[in-house]
Design brief:
globular, alpha/beta, TIM Barrel, two-stranded antiparallel sheet, binds ligand 9MR, 14 helices
């Protein structure tokens, strides 16, 4: 029988966190409070959010959160913070004529907060998940500029005080070269729109300024992926951060998505956290998942050995984050998607098991033993 290790992964991750930092209110409680678990080890239930001082977040589906009690129950019990994987994007809120429809997003934010979860805003200026129909109907840079300013201002103003941090600029440079992302170096798509095509690189600074004007208290992030793997991209993001800081642009944080796999280099992870910490900004590990089938083999059977490697990789992220990012700069650790069933990787057709919970919301007994082992050291 193959024993699922996903919960073990997160527990190893957060057991380490609890070891490295003061916990919010203790790492375990007795009885109840979780989904699955239990078994021969007694009634101890691990509460992930209590294991780490920085917030522990998860990227989630609004529809599942609203309609699936197993899904929402596990999130409420285990996490501090949620990021909408789609609902707060341009395409989810802007109609084809450029007007806004916020009823679902209002409901998402209110629902999260009513359940004791804080909301991280994602995302204001990205090239994907836009309303491409509307944006392509605009003519000229002035109209595009107004559309971006209006969207950012409207969004940040609407959720002021409710959303205390935003991914303002996402994935602004391309893999390999670190060049500014435009339609000249990146693919087209119905919901794809490259702000830089008409606005040049200034759209990045402007996006931060508009967001800051709308809510001066919100923490504003630049966010990107492959930073643990692609040193030119990492250096390019850091160069942009330094340019923004030199121009007194209100940028407060940098997000590293960390869509990684079991073969990702630990040295690369260390190098990334060291360089990101050196910016002096808040550092958010913003979208963690760890693939165990990175070559997309098919058929593919997950094994205990692969889950163990995955667990070690989750663990290394936390170790490196706590070792290399000073406490005052830790914005938090966020995993992307709750279960393998709703993982964007699996949803895109790949065979993989990249998240912390299986499709049945299971955590397994071994995880509890791992926590006990850590706590007893
Ligand atoms: O998880 C998101 C998925 O549901 C969307 O279809 C996809 C659209 O491209 O975006 C996914 O989330 C992305 C996030 O917003 C930005 N970083 C990469 C994430 C995975 O693609």
């Amino acid at each position: 029988m193959i024993i699922r290790m996903q919960w073990y992964n997160l527990v190893v991750l957060l057991a380490l966190v609890s070891f490295s930092a003061c916990s919010k209110s203790g790492g375990t409680s007795t009885g109840g409070g979780g989904t699955g678990g239990g078994g021969g080890g007694g009634t101890t239930t691990v509460i992930l959010k209590n294991l780490a001082t920085p917030p522990v977040g998860v990227g989630i589906s609004y529809d599942l959160f609203k309609n699936n009690l197993s899904y929402s129950g596990l999130i409420k019990t285990q996490f501090d913070r949620v990021t909408a994987e789609y609902q707060m994007k341009h395409g989810a809120n802007v109609k084809n004529d450029g007007t806004y429809e916020f009823s679902r997003t209002d409901d998402f934010v209110n629902l999260a907060q009513a359940n004791g979860l804080s909301v991280f805003g994602h995302v204001l200026a990205w090239h994907q998940n836009n309303n491409g129909t509307y944006l392509r109907s605009l003519s000229g840079a002035a109209q595009v500029n107004s559309a971006l300013q209006n969207w950012i201002t409207t969004m940040v103003t609407r959720y002021k005080t409710k959303v205390t941090g935003w991914d303002v600029a996402n994935e602004v440079v391309v893999d390999g070269t670190g060049d500014l992302r435009t339609s000249a170096n990146s693919p087209a798509g119905s919901d794809v729109f490259y702000w830089a095509d008409q606005l040049g690189r200034n759209y990045i600074a402007d996006a931060f300024r508009w967001a800051n004007a709308a809510d001066p208290a919100a923490k504003l992030f630049i966010n990107d992926y492959n930073l643990e793997y692609d040193s030119r991209k990492l250096d390019s993001v850091i160069k942009i951060i330094n340019e923004l800081k030199a121009a007194s642009v209100p940028i407060h944080g940098v997000g590293t998505q960390m869509h990684i796999n079991i073969n990702t280099s630990n040295a690369g992870i260390d190098n990334m956290f060291q360089k990101l910490a050196a910016t002096g900004l808040l550092v958010h590990v913003s979208e963690i998942d760890v693939r165990i089938n990175p070559s997309s083999a098919s058929p593919f059977t997950p094994t205990t050995a692969l889950y163990d490697q995955q667990a070690q990789k989750f663990r290394y992220i936390a170790e490196s984050y706590f070792r290399n990012v000073p406490a005052a700069q830790r914005w938090g650790l966020t995993v992307w998607n709750l279960t393998d069933a709703d993982s964007w990787i699996v949803q895109s057709g790949k065979i993989d098991f990249p998240t912390l919970f299986d499709a049945g919301y299971i955590k397994n007994l071994r995880s509890l033993n791992i926590v006990q082992d850590y706590n007893n050291k």
